[in-house]
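Collaborator request, handled under Task 6.
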Amino acid sequence: MSGHGQHDHGDHEDHETHEHDRGLSYDFPVLARRRMIRLLAGASLVPLVGCTADDDPASSSAAASGTPSSDTAASSSASECATIPNETAGPYPADGSNGVNVLKESGVVRGDIRSSFGNSAGGTAEGVPLTVTLTIVDAASGCGTPKAGAAVYLWHCDRAGDYSLYTEGVTDENYLRGVQETDDKGQVTFTSIFPGCYTGRWPHIHFEVYGSLEDATAATSITNTSQLAFPKDVCDTVYATDGYSRSVENLGELSLDSDMIFSDGYDHQLAAMEGSADKGYTATLTVPV
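Structure tokens returned to the collaborator:
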């Protein structure tokens, strides 16, 4: 399916290094901007002279009683409902930004993304079953309002670490890509397989949020672009199964804290997991936008 059997490991390494070096050039500007934003945010927390909590009777009273003030509660709520971090789409989005565009193809709106569709080669991605549910909520409302009628485009690599439409051997496939409209709960659910771990990146899933299904299938007006990360214990369990042998070595050279994307924080992107390698896993993530 992935075409790895058609060329030796050395050829694959050369190809992967070239492509993922390109990915780093895509990823670094976004990472640098996010770190700068966090530095500025940290600087803004330094209290101004003449405007400390001690000068505010309400704050002093609340502190003395042990009860959070309204300002503190609002700040806590805002922190707990931060907008999902904006991340690079990487070099394999197929959203029209670098030539390839799967979003305008008939059949891309679907829940089961394991097989290719349309005029593709018709292959099916093999691997440990994975169900992904994203809940899109309005960050401005404190995450209390679901974003019904929005749309999500989701994509990821196969268990060999290859991306359909891009990687040699699967350029004629378009599996592991799909679009769905959010329901009244703001949710979308995709049926897929657990992605492999390729050189230089922690296991992840890409997704783009659009204001509507019409926007998504027109490949226009993306509101948010981010990535979902997987917990290490689940990755270790999955990669011990057949078909994921290359991922074991790649994962052993990485950590969430050293990953080029997640190293500056991943609390809001780490999926909650349930299930087993035998029966499959369910990954869930709330996505404030």
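The cover message to the collaborator said: "Residues 9-44 form the longest helix (36 residues). DSSP finds six helices and nine strands in the chain. Please let us know whether this matches your experimental observations."
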